[in-house]
Amino acid sequence: MAQSVVYADLKFAAGPPSTVADDDDSPYENVPLGPVTAAPSPGRWTRRWRVPTTVLAASLLLLLLLLVAVVALGARYWQVTRSLRDSSREHAAEQGRLSRELQAREQSLEQAQQELAWARGELQRAWHEYNITQVELEFRNAELGHTQHELAVLQAEMQVVQGRLNTSESTVSSLRACVDTDCCPRGWVLFRSKCLYISVTKKTWQESQQDCAEKSAQLLVQ
User: Which stretches are annotated as coiled coil (predicted)?
Assistant: First the structure.
């Protein structure tokens, strides 16, 4: 390893001429006498330092490496800053899109809630109308049952009346036949081989029985 060598130039003040002979091997050089321009400060010497080439090259190389590192760090910082800026823009755009989607979802949810409330109202109204209709239907069914019962009673009564009408028609037919054949006394009619007397006078049961006894007849009992 090379060692640093320090060179120094020594200057001496003017003085009496030296009587010592010159020595070629002496490392010092005498300065010729002349006027002194400035007096040097006592105890202080002027020195010149010489830096080795190797140290200077190493310093320049280190400075160059530092410069390259600074440039690389600056470029990396610019790339990271740009990436962060792009990420921030993408994040802002994504946040805006999500905000719009959320707002649209909220509007859809609000509309769905309104439609659900309307559907519930319609369902309650329909249920109320169904209950009213059910009550009316039960009332109509009761009326229909009552009407059917009355109709059955009327049909039974009509059958009875129809039977009586048939009997009356048969009686009238027999009476007409008896009148035509003159099989019973005058004023009497023939009915099933029997002569009947039909009174047009309203009498009680006792009076009718007495009247029949006077005519040698019996009171007809259905």
Answer: 95-122
